Amino acid sequence: MRDFIKICGFVLVAAGTIGLLLNEFVWDVSSSCTIILAVVNFVGLVSLAFAFWGMRGE
After folding, report:
1. At what angle do helices 31-49 and 2-22 cross, to 10 degrees?
2. The pTM is what?
3. Is 29 domain-assigned?
4. Residues 6+ apart with CB under 8 A from 37
5. pLDDT at 58 (0 to 100)
6. Domain that includes residue 45, residue range
């Protein structure tokens, strides 16, 4: 389970970062898209933090 959370967190962070960069330099879409991608990035970071520090015993 811990590996699954790590992989999902990494994928979310990567997708959020790539999406934010593309939105800034290529698409220039609305600010709601930026907020959604930032939330995806934040959720990925939280899941990575939970996998590394929250699940120490497992």
Report:
1. 150
2. 0.83
3. yes
4. 16, 19, 20, 23
5. 58
6. 2-53
